[in-house]
Specification:
CATH architecture: 2-Layer Sandwich
Order of helices and strands: EHEEHE
Number of strands: 4
Radius of gyration: 13 Å
Strand content: 25-35%
Oligomer: single chain
Structural class: alpha+beta
CATH topology: Alpha-Beta Plaits
Strand order of the largest sheet: 2-3-1-4
């Protein structure tokens, strides 16, 4: 599946969540990630994320699609992390 992930964390936990997300998805811009991920890897990611976050005050939103082609992406302005440069 293809996901877009957005998080809002307390500044004390934001660095840990950033590192955790980078292990599974591609960084797009501040607190936003996207990429293809399997159901098993997503469950693994969520288990780790729940250890980092405080569910009373932090939030994590995941938009899911069967594949990237089902989403139309339009960037207006400077793209923070252009994925076209990956080898």
């Amino acid at each position: 599946m293809y996901v877009i992930l957005v998080y809002d964390m307390d500044k004390r936990r934001v660095g840990k969540m950033l590192k955790h997300c980078r292990c599974y998805l591609n960084w797009i811009q501040n607190s936003v990630f996207e990429g293809a991920i399997s159901e098993v890897k997503l469950k693994e990611f969520l288990a780790g994320a729940k250890l980092i976050m405080n569910e009373e005050t932090d939030s994590l939103i995941i938009f899911k699609s069967r594949q990237e082609g089902w989403l139309a992406k339009e960037v207006i302005g400077k793209e923070k992390n252009d994925l076209d440069h990956f080898i």
